[in-house]
Amino acid sequence: ALVGAASVIAKVERDAHIATLADEYGSIGSGYPGDSTTRAFLASYVDEHRELPPFARESWSTCEDALAAAEQTGLEQF
Description:
Layout: H1 2-25, H2 36-49, H3 61-76
């Protein structure tokens, strides 16, 4: 029961943190790499800023994909 309670508390804290980030950055989705809203946010952010947002996990393939797509877009502009 203790582990279950800790899991619930962690999810509530995570959801609150995601809500705080959404207040600052707009709709970021669930924050999970498989979420289409999160993927779209990352792609848009990287396209505009040429880097990941400070809260993104660089090790996610989702982030690597967003950076690679922005790099390819940048090369096509020449």
